[in-house]
Amino acid sequence: MGCQDEQLVQTICDLYEKISKLESLKPSEDVNILFKQLVSTCIPPNPNIDVTKMCGTVQDIRLNLIKICGEAEGHLEHHFSSILTSLQDNPLNHLNIFPYYNNYLKLGKLEFDLLTQNLNGFVPKSVAFVGSGPLPLTSIVLASFHLKDTIFHNFDIDPSANSLASLLVSSDPDISQRMFFHTVDIMDVTESLKSFDVVFLAALVGMNKEEKVKVIEHLQRHMAPGAVLMVRSAHGPRAFLYPIVEPCDLQGFEVLSIYHPTDDVINSVVISKKLAVVSTANVGGPLCLIKPCNCSKIHAIMNKKKNMMIEEFGAREEQLS
C-alpha cells in the first residue's frame, strides 16, 4: 500500500477506537457524527485496499468494527421503524425520513436489474429475504416498485424486529397482503426454502467468514435447483463495514455476476444460481462454478451512469432454466 492507503486504514482504525469507547450505539449526536465519518471514509472506491491481506491487528479491528456496525445499524433501523409505526398515516408514505432510504432505492433498482438480466425476463413469484430486520426496506422497495405481484417472506431471528416490521406494512392495502414475517433462525428452516424462486441474504447475516459460509451451505442444501441466491458483499475499504463474500464461498452455486457499486450504495451484490446437479468429486464438497468469460478473464465495466463496477462472468451457451 502507498502512503495515502496506509493513512486511510489508520483513519479507519482511529475511528474504530473512538466508536468502541461510546457508551451506547443507539442514535445520538456523537454516534451519528462518528458513523457518518466512518462511512464517508470507507465509501470512496480504492482498488489498492485488500482487507484480506492486512496484518492481524487490522484484521481484528475490522471484524470488531463489522460487529459494531451491525449493532448500530440495528439500533438505527429500530429507532426509525418505531417513529414510522407511530404515525397515523400509512408509514410507507414517509420512508424518506430514514437517512439511507435513497440508498435502498438505488440498491433495489440495481438488484432488480440484475435479476431481470440473469433470469431472462422471468418474474419471481415468491422471494425470501433472510435477515430483514425492523425496517425491511429491500423487500418494501422491490414489492412497491419492481416486483408488484410477488410474495415476500421475511425471516429474522429477532421477534421485536418482526413485530415492528409487520406493523410498518400493516396499513398498506397492497404490501400487507404480499409481505409475511417469520421469527426463526434460518438454520432451522429447511423444506420451505424450496418454494422460493429467489433468496436474498442480508449483509450482516453471518458476521464473519465461517458464519457466512455456514448459512450459505445451509441454503444450498435446501433451496430448489435453479433458484437464485442474492448475497450482499463488500469491496475495498467498504469491507471494513460489511463481510466479504467470494465466489469460492458459494459451493453448489453458479456465480453469474458480481456488482461493485462506486457511488453511495455501499454493498456489493453477488448473484448466483443453485446448480441442478452438484458434483463433489475431488473437491471434498459441492462444486462452485463461475460463468466462463468469453475472453477468459473478468471484465470491469462501468455502467452508463459511471457509478458501478461490474464483474461479469460472460455468457455461456446454455440459458438459465
UniProtKB/TrEMBL annotation:
Lineage: Eukaryota, Viridiplantae, Streptophyta, Embryophyta, Tracheophyta
Keywords: S-adenosyl-L-methionine, Transferase
Organism: Cardamine amara subsp. amara
Family: Belongs to the nicotianamine synthase (NAS)-like family.
Keyword S-adenosyl-L-methionine: yes
Function: Synthesizes nicotianamine, a polyamine which serves as a sensor for the physiological iron status within the plant, and/or might be involved in the transport of iron.
Enzyme Commission (EC) number: 2.5.1.43
Catalytic reaction annotation: 3 S-adenosyl-L-methionine = nicotianamine + 3 S-methyl-5'-thioadenosine + 3 H(+)
InterPro entries tied to this protein: Nicotian_synth (IPR004298), SAM-dependent_MTases_sf (IPR029063)
GO biological process, alphabetically ordered: nicotianamine biosynthetic process; phloem transport; pollen development; pollen tube growth
Protein name in UniProt: Nicotianamine synthase
Gene Ontology MF annotations: nicotianamine synthase activity
